[in-house]
Write a structure and sequence with these properties.
Helix content: 10-25%
Number of strands: 34
């Protein structure tokens, strides 16, 4: 069996010095039909290793029920890489950040109000242990020590950016040992001494994360003695939040840093080599003073685009790495086939509120609880209650809106609460006016529809339960709710009727059909405001007119000769059609 190890300040593979030239690609952000193509392009660019996180939230969406098939078949992904001659670095978490929903944690953890995450808490560690037992039973045969291609595995992830519980890190290390992980173990943290002090553990290799200043960045490792220079995340680009400009980075800027890695005889993992897509509800969010949800595309300005095409950065890095290693550059695989389908009419519609009993799970609740308390992980949640009697005019108060809510009074929408904006002075003033009601005499109905925009994936605000926590009317707590959990994973139950008119007020589902040939494409959402798109039952992700993303990627492997598209518009739209095009949609 091959042997990968550390001796002094070098990596060794079977006794020979070895530099890791790795590229990040997450199996859960790319459909399996494209894994081999993307991994081959990684190999042909001069890389020898692929790195991937592992997403606990998708592998165990319900406690005790595990899925490792289809898009989540990590063993198939690793074996595909091995067949192409690539080694692998696996970062199983349990927390991964990755701009991924809840940093990879399953939402059901938050059903326990007393849960203590990312620390040496036995209740939390019990869940981690049960997950690792299942995951590691699949990974152990893929370790290089057992004839596989996994050369190293990470303990936690950028832990020093969050905490400093060494007992917790040691508990994870002990789990690895007991469950048969006998390859190199490492931690990864930013270059700031605080991060390294909190995130490293004695006897485990420390590695760094950074995107620039490579010439001096490795100085941060000096307190840790003679260790290999390894950048576990070299950030070649960045991710986008809704409402921001699209991040880009010039090829020469990236190349300059890689040249410095080679000059220092250092190892690196390019984050990302192929970013892929945050399909479904899997885009996370940041909270650095304000809430910032991440867009659906995870393009990341990577050498391979979201749809797997080459960039200028790819070609320049390929030339550099291949020349460095004496690799002859052969012909590359072709660029992805793209298709332009044109305008697709949405000829049928289904109102959300008219279909609640078909597609939601109903709960009765004295007080509004978080989504997780009802056993729901994603989608929307609708709280409705009756206010009976005689009430003077007053203000409605709604606490902990997470993340985007429409408020209805007697079936009429009176306000929209956006977590991204709610703390601004002008927003507070506007909401105060909108949430003032003139009183109740008899009976009125209050409804609050909350759309989740991604749980926080980084920093100290991880306990990001969705929904609302309390409603008041003139300082009286409003009670007795019927609550509808709307996960949007059973749209085949919707009852559609013929659509009439181009202007539509949401929340509403609009359905159409189209023919397709071979190739990838993008659905352009011009004319729509905010919502989700489903093609042949697959959730492509979220769109929002505030940008920067204007179109959603449709992998060609999802398409058939005859196809169904459903747009769920939560606001309003001024068109009854979408355009399916060959061009991407990032501004």
């Amino acid at each position: 069996m091959a042997k990968f190890e550390v001796k002094g300040d070098r990596f060794y593979l079977d006794g020979e010095p070895f530099n890791i030239y790795s590229g990040a690609m997450h199996y859960f952000r790319t459909l399996p039909e494209y894994w081999e193509d993307r991994l081959l392009k990684l190999k042909m660019a001069g890389f020898n290793t692929v790195e991937t996180y592992v997403c606990w939230n998708l592998h165990e969406t319900k406690k005790g029920t595990f899925v490792f098939s289809g898009m989540l078949d990590i063993v198939r992904f690793l074996k595909t890489a091995q067949d192409l001659g690539l080694y692998a670095i696996v970062r199983p978490g349990p927390y991964i950040c990755a701009e991924w929903e809840f940093g990879g944690f399953p939402a059901w953890l938050l059903a326990d109000k007393n849960i203590e995450l990312r620390c040496n808490n036995e209740a939390y560690l019990m869940h981690v242990r049960e997950y690792f037992e299942k995951l590691f039973s699949l990974l152990v045969p893929q370790l290089i020590t057992n004839g596989g291609n996994i050369i190293a595995m990470q303990i936690e992830n950028e832990y020093g950016s969050y905490g400093n519980d060494k007992k917790y890190l040691k508990s994870l290390e002990n789990m690895y040992d007991k469950l048969g992980i006998d390859v190199l173990k490492f931690t990864s943290d930013g270059t700031w001494c605080n991060m390294l002090s909190g995130g490293t553990i004695e006897g485990v290799l420390p590695t760094l994360n950074f995107g620039s200043r490579t010439a001096t960045a490795f100085n941060a490792l000096e307190p840790y003695g003679k260790v290999p220079k390894m950048c576990m995340e070299f950030w070649c680009g960045w991710f986008d939040h809704w409402g921001e400009k699209h991040h880009t980075r010039g090829a020469d800027s990236t190349l300059k840093e890689i040249e410095e890695f080679l000059k220092q005889d250092a190892s690196f993992n390019m984050y990302m080599f192929h970013g892929g897509t945050n399909f479904g509800f899997n885009a996370g969010a940041n909270h650095g003073g304000k809430y910032q949800p991440t867009v659906t595309s995870y393009d990341y300005c990577a050498p391979l685009t979201e749809w797997g095409d080459y960039t200028e950065t790819y070609h320049k890095i390929r030339k550099l790495l291949c020349e460095k290693q004496g690799i002859t550059m052969g012909d590359l695989p072709p660029s992805p086939v793209m298709q332009s389908i044109g305008t697709v009419k949405l000829t049928e519609r289904a109102d959300l509120f008219e279909n609640l009993d078909r597609i939601s799970v109903k709960h009765e609740s004295p007080l509004p609880r978080s989504m997780e308390a009802y056993g729901q992980s994603h989608g929307l949640i609708y709280y409705t209650t009756k206010i009976r009697g005689k009430y003077d005019a007053g203000f409605i108060g709604i606490e902990d809106v997470r993340d985007y809510a429409h408020v209805y009074f007697d079936k009429k929408k009176i306000a929209t609460i956006d977590r991204m904006k709610k703390d601004s002075f002008f927003t507070k003033l506007k909401l105060k006016k909108q949430l003032f009601i003139k009183g109740v005499s008899g009976e009125s109905e209050l409804g609050i529809l909350v759309d989740t925009m991604g749980r926080v994936n980084y920093g100290t605000d991880l306990y990001d339960r969705k929904g609302i926590s309390k409603v008041t009317l003139a300082n009286q707590v409003v009670m007795d709710y019927t609550v509808y959990s709307i996960s949007l994973d059973n749209l085949e139950r919707l009852k559609f009727t013929a659509a009439q008119g181009k202007t539509v007020t949401g929340p509403v589902f609009l359905k159409g059909s189209f023919k397709a040939g071979k190739g990838d494409c993008f659905v352009n959402m011009d004319g729509f405001t905010k919502g989700y798109v489903f093609v042949n039952g697959f959730n492509l992700g979220r769109y929002w007119s505030i940008g920067p993303q204007k179109a959603l990627y449709i992998p060609g492997s999802l398409l058939k000769e005859e196809n169904e598209i459903i747009v769920f518009e939560t606001e309003n739209c001024k068109t009854d059609s979408v355009k399916i095009q060959a061009e991407p949609g990032l501004g």
